[in-house]
Specification:
This protein has 235 residues and is mostly beta strands. It has 2 helices and 10 strands, in the order βαβαββββββββ. Helices cover 4% and strands 20% of the residues. The protein has a 4-stranded antiparallel sheet, with no helix packed on it. Strands 1-2 form a two-stranded antiparallel sheet. The longest helix has 5 residues, at 66-70.
Length: 235
């Protein structure tokens, strides 16, 4: 299932999606007369955290197949929010560049065309109040190693973590130092300097602050697997 996102407010569930406006993202990109690159920024509101905004059917069952794609959906018995549709599933955030003379063809994906870009999203639930283990939020991830030869700034790539508005008293743990095949980050051994304090050989609680920058070790063509966890307090 694909759910589009817009800079403009969504049309009501009683309206067909084909009537969705998005004027801020409807623009013509004029080429540079001398052939230089032209950068243009687009945006949208990812309204994926609106539990009471009921938009789509929980199952696409309708009398007319055309209703599946464009709606309107007000005649469906059970409407659910976008949050309900994507929660606990595998989510991909895909950006599509639409340019009629150079269309996206059947079979194209982000790995073989520059007209598509993809990032992955994940939702992990927590109990409240529950018990301590039920408030532990784990998230595995995979990273491409920093290049063997650094760029001119002589710095490795970095993993950027935006902690947002995590509750006060949360224990934040992330990976800072690479060791020979540790349980949390397998791969070639290396080390680097960072302003994180070690709580054990493989895990480091972040200093207070919204953003955290963790250098990624150099390695081979094999990606690194990592583990990020957040222990939430009872609130």
């Amino acid at each position: 299932m694909t759910i589009p996102f817009f800079a403009a407010p969504r049309v009501n569930a009683s309206q067909a999606l084909s009537g969705q406006p998005d004027p801020k993202n409807t623009r013509t990109i004029n080429p540079d007369p001398l052939g230089a690159e032209v950068d243009t920024f687009y945006g949208c509101w990812l309204d994926i955290n609106q539990p009471n905004d009921l938009r789509f059917p929980d199952r696409m069952v309708a009398n007319t197949p055309a209703d599946y794609a464009y709606g309107p959906y007000s005649s469906f018995n059970n409407l659910v929010s976008i949050l309900q549709l994507v929660r606990s599933q595998h989510e991909c955030l895909v950006c599509e560049v639409s340019f009629a003379p150079d269309p996206i063809t059947v079979g194209d994906d982000p790995s073989n065309t520059d007209k598509l870009a993809q990032r992955n999203l994940a939702f992990v639930s927590s109990a409240n109040p529950g018990v301590d283990p039920s408030r532990l939020i784990p998230q595995t991830f995979e990273l491409k190693p920093s290049p063997k030869i650094f760029k001119l700034d002589q710095k490795p790539d970095e993993l950027v973590i935006d902690w947002g508005n995590v509750p006060p008293g949360s224990v934040r743990r992330s990976i800072c130092r690479e060791r020979p095949r540790p349980p949390s980050w397998p791969g070639p051994g290396s080390s680097h300097d960072h302003n994180l304090k070690a709580s054990d050989p493989q895990h480091h609680p972040g200093e207070r602050g919204r953003h955290e920058y963790i250098p990624i070790p150099r390695g081979t063509a094999v990606n690194f697997a990592g583990l990020l966890s957040l222990q939430l307090p009872q609130v």
